[in-house]
Design brief:
Helices cover 27% and strands 21% of the residues. The protein has 271 residues and is α/β, with parallel strands linked by helices. A nine-stranded mixed sheet has the order 1-2-4-3-5-6-7-8-9, sandwiched between helices. The two termini are 23 Å apart.
Length: 271
């Protein structure tokens, strides 16, 4: 099954852009900071985020990322992706740094294919292709949901997003999924709520809303509260981090999230 993202204009039109100097600042606060980004000729039209000097024996799980508006600027959410990288992950955004144009879900699949082919080799010797999360903001969230049937993808992240033309697809979602939403003022709110409610019994899911609108804090330093939730999900799902797990059971209250969850006991981390 593939999701049809034609007609995503309503969400993509309000994708938030951040100043160039803000996008390229930061670098994260993790143990392998700064998170940096680069390009690779073997994966054109993508931006690769990496930690600085991780231990040789540290395995790097993978986040593949779709941008708001399906925009092709792979640095549009650099604050968040550098934060992820600084904690020992490789993140791959569709689109090159500052690139113009649009992306497709096929470009996210290219990232997954590239990881599968290059993990364990050369500069990517410590990349772990068995731990891949697909996630994205707004239109990029639909690109991520389009990967849910790929057996190489273990979990999905939906940031200020929801299905449009294929509105019943969530009924078949069975992989762990996290929804990070901007409250009733988020243009994707109704779609995200509908999709979460449609998830089948037994699917591990967490949905958090903060009344900060479309994209929320994603463009704040390190991704703000949106970024904190996204990073904690990665830390729990792929590293079995107990502190990160506790964030989704009670710790979120300190950040003002309005939360619903389903079948989290079914999530046996690390995946």
């Amino acid at each position: 099954m593939k999701l049809n993202i034609i007609g995503f204009t309503a969400l993509s039109a309000v994708a938030v852009a951040s100043p160039v100097e803000k996008r390229q600042g930061g670098g994260g606060d993790g143990p392998y900071k700064p998170g940096t980004y680069k390009t690779d000729s073997s994966l054109q039209q993508h931006t690769i985020y990496l930690p600085t000097n991780p231990p040789a024996d540290l395995k790097l799980p993978v986040l593949v990322w779709g941008n708001g508006g399906c925009g092709a600027d792979g640095t549009s959410t650099a604050q968040f992706l550098q934060q992820v990288a600084s904690y020992g992950y490789i993140a791959i955004a569709s689109g090159g740094p500052g690139q113009q144009g649009s992306t497709t879900s096929a470009m996210m699949k290219q990232s997954i294919d590239w990881v599968t082919q290059n993990a364990g080799k050369g500069a990517y010797a410590n990349v772990d292709a068995t731990k891949i999360m697909a996630s994205g903001f707004s239109c990029g969230g639909v690109e991520a949901m389009d990967q849910i049937w790929d057996p190489r993808v273990k979990t999905i992240g939906v940031v200020s997003s929801g299905l449009l033309t294929n509105q019943t697809a969530a009924k078949s979602f069975k992989k762990p999924i996290v929804y990070i939403m901007g409250g009733s003022g988020d243009i994707a709110y109704a779609n995200g709520e509908r999709d979460y409610n449609a998830l089948p019994a037994g699917t591990p899911a967490w949905k958090g809303n903060i009344n900060v609108g479309h994209g929320g804090t994603l463009f704040d330093q390190n991704g703000g509260r949106f970024g904190k939730a996204g990073l904690n999900w990665l830390q729990w799902v792929f590293r079995g981090d107990e502190k990160a797990k506790a964030y989704f059971t009670s710790g979120y209250s300190a950040d003002g999230w309005q939360v619903q969850s389903k079948s989290l006991d079914n999530l046996k981390a690390p995946l």
